[in-house]
Amino acid sequence: MRLLKQVYFESKKNDFEIMKTNSLSPNPHFHNQIELVYVINGQSVAFADQKKTAIKTGELFFAFPNQIHYYEKSIIGKYIVIIFSPEIIYGMEDMLYNNIPKSNILAEEKMQNFVNIISDILKAEGDFSHTIKVGLMNQLLANILPEFELKPRIKTN
């Protein structure tokens, strides 16, 4: 008999968060924002809408808004977690809310061109750091979204 896990809705106040962490949340959750996890080193098993995928060093996991996601068997490592509102991505809100990716993983070989943007986001400081981070997120999403095959989200309660 398989036990179902409790799913939590996370209400986020900020339109943008970025953090480095050594582990990932094993609690199934969803939120209205996008969650990106870049694996600097380590590995985990990521779930998105019950679809299980191994993620490892150099890969990116991408959870769309309201997609139930969580992580299991995470090896202590280094992860960058970016959580942001689709509204900060110019002209893409409808696409991000109304679709989900067929696969939530971007492989290491496809990520090589984007690691510098993530690094620049982490480094942004000062009076205009939020504006810089939002601009870089727009650049990042404009470049990585074409790498994902999207399918329409099936609306459910």
Secondary structure topology:
Blueprint (H helix, E strand, L loop, with lengths): L7 E2 L6 E6 L7 E2 L3 E8 L1 E6 L2 E6 L3 E4 L5 E4 L5 E7 L8 H6 E3 L3 E2 L1 H4 L3 H9 L5 H16 L5 E3 L5
Parallel strand pairs: 1-3
Antiparallel strand pairs: 2-9, 4-7, 4-9, 5-6, 5-8, 7-11, 10-12
Helix pairs in contact: 3-4
Mean pLDDT: 91
User: What is the string of SSEs from the N terminus onward?
Assistant: EEEEEEEEEHEEHHHE
Compute the number of strand runs: 12
Question: Which structural class is indicated by helix and strand composition?
Answer: alpha+beta
Q: Could you give the order of strands across the largest sheet?
A: 2-9-4-7-11
Number of helices: 4
* Uncertain residue segments: none
How would you portray this structure in words?
The protein has 157 residues and is of the alpha+beta class. Helices cover 22% and strands 34% of the residues. The protein is built from four helices and twelve strands, in the order βββββββββαββαααβ. It has helices at residues 93-98, 108-111, 115-123, 129-144; strands at 8-9, 16-21, 29-30, 34-41, 43-48, 51-56, 60-63, 69-72, 78-84, 99-101, 105-106, 150-152. A five-stranded antiparallel β-sheet has the order 2-9-4-7-11. The chain has a three-stranded antiparallel β-sheet with strand order 6-5-8, with no helix packed on it. Strands 1-3 form a two-stranded parallel sheet. Strand 5 and strand 6 (51-56) form a beta hairpin. Helix 3 (115-123) packs antiparallel against helix 4 (129-144). The protein starts with 7 loop residues before the first strand and ends in a 5-residue tail after the last strand. The mean pLDDT is 91.
